[in-house]
Design brief:
The structure holds 2 protein chains of 2 kinds.
Chain A (H helix, E strand, L loop, with lengths): L1 E6 L3 H17 L2 E6 L23 E3 L8 H12 L3 E6 L4 H7 L2 H8 L4 E5 L6
Parallel strand pairs in A: 1-2, 1-4, 2-3, 4-5
Helix pairs in contact in A: 2-4
Chain B lengths: L1 H13 L2 H19 L5 H11 L5 H26 L8 H12 L3 H34 L4 H18 L4 H16 L1 E2 L6 E2 L13 H19 L20 H18 L11 H16 L11 H25 L5 H12 L8 H4 L1 H22 L3 H5 L6 H20 L2 H19 L5 H24 L10 H26 L4
Helix pairs in contact in B: 1-15, 2-4, 2-15, 3-4, 3-9, 3-13, 3-17, 4-5, 4-6, 4-12, 4-13, 4-15, 5-6, 5-12, 6-10, 6-12, 6-15, 7-8, 7-19, 7-20, 8-19, 9-17, 9-18, 10-11, 10-12, 11-12, 13-19, 17-18
The chains are: A alpha/beta, B mainly alpha.
Chain lengths: 126, 501
Amino acid sequence: MTLMVAYSHSPEGTTALEHGRDLAARLQLAVTVFDLDRQSHATDRHVDPVDDTAPAGERWLAPASTAPVPADDLLDSALELDAAMIVVGVRRRSPVGKLIMGSLAQRIILGAAAPVVAVKAPAGAA
Amino acid sequence: MESVDLLLGGLEQAFTPMNLLWVVVGALLGTAVGVLPGLGSSMAVALLLPVTFTLDPTSAFIMFAGVYFGGLFGDSTMAILVNTPGGSTAIASTFEGHRMTLSGRAPQALATAAIGAFTGGIISVVIVVLFAPKLADLAINFGPPEYLALSVLAFVATATVVSTSFAKGLTSLAFGLGFAVIGIDGISGAQRFTFGVPQLFDGISIIVITVGVLALGEVFHVASRVHRTRPARLHELEGRPYLSKAEFREAAPAWVRGASIGAPFGVVPVGGAEIPSFLAYGSERALDRRRRDPQFGKGAIRGLAAPEAAGNATAGTAIGALLAMGLPTSATAAIMLAAFRQYGLQPGPLLFDRSADLVWTLLASLFIGLVVLLVLNLPFAPLWAKLVKIPRHYLYAGITVFCGLGVYATSASVVDLVLVLGIGFVGFLLRRFDFPLAPIMIGVVLGPLAETSLRNALLSSGGEYGVLVDSAISQTIYGALLLIVGFTLYRRLRAVAGRDV
């Protein structure tokens, strides 16, 4: 079983990754990081970790460069890998803003088949 | 019912041995270029354009139509087996199609794709037979201002919707329009962009441009990265493609839904089947998520069935729009329009009156072509997949020879050979930096139509610009254009501003 982190290059993404690693260690799950801010050209969606602090054995994926909606690709990959849990970082936004522009976090939380853990970045991190 | 009579007449014509032969040749060629990644139906039609001048128009178009549909049948094979789409129209098929292969269901995936392509094609050809004459009746009301509006819609929609960036799409369009205006202007007699070179006075032949951009450009592109991309490895496949009854029932609604999403896109000039196949994939995905046991991610048969049906449905109605209105909605259709012109035929409302024979024989042979393609693709898809084992250096060397031969055969001019090299290099640069190619073809083919329409409209109105937006038809077309551009802008904005993770 694996725990999937919805990672992005933002304070929320960093927090999600920290929490995800922490949770996975406690639950003894493998970690799969899905990097929403990059694209993968490999057939198995593999990408290199963003920096060398990533522990060995962690799997890094990114949406296929052809995927129409990166978040949907994350959800499909979670089903494919049979992820036990998805960790996503969220941020406060106005309801009107979400109505007009949509919300990636909401899409992941509501679309996932697995349980989702939503974490907030520490205050002042942005 | 009149159309049915005419169609039966067309079937009679289409069942002559010679026409049947061209159907089969077109289907074989189309499937082959469809299967091979990097080659597409537009390139095949471009390369065939010079060759077909010795044929009579009906045979040529029967073959082109076979290639067009064949490309869409073949492109999913590699998408399913190796996750490398045979063309941009099969990208949406890679997601669930390849997942089916990974879970050991490749035969079912291939069958789903082939039957889906067949279903989409048949549904759309039926629509064309029933409605194309009516569309042609509507198009009779089109004057120069309406044709200008239609061309502008085609220009802007192809340039903005398909490409990843507006700037790149519009640049491609500018290249296409630029190529189109080279030569002596027919109305005023002024030279444009000829640099005083006499060989350019007649303009650049459409064959030189299509072969250069679509064929030679791809050859250069492949040559430039020959040691960087490794040829795809094939999943060995046991057994023939088949579907069980339960799987058939599972896929059937998706085929029909896909076809109904794809069919309207044949008349919307957004550059072919890529957009509708993604839309069909997306809508199946949304429906799947509401089911008790979501399948997307584990190799959903519906996620493959819908885009395949949508792609071929688009191709069918695209041929209808080309015949009835003279409106090309994809690169392949644009080249076919150019071919019609080379034969002195003008697709549009009058074609149904003046060349009824050709039109109905072509439509009838679409049915035959789809059946032939199903027979070629359903049992033999694994065999076609072996085409990737052709060494690429032989394949592309052959294509290069064919480019030179075709261009030289039509004009017997060395200048054209130099031009095709130059334009091929431009095509290579555009590919290298991810510029879309459909806007170039649409620009080259529709550019002259747009220009003469604009001038005729202004001449008849005495220089009054209001005439361009006077009629309800042109207002509707410009309205649709605004909607398309607005929606594209909104989607781009949403993708950026909605990020909150």
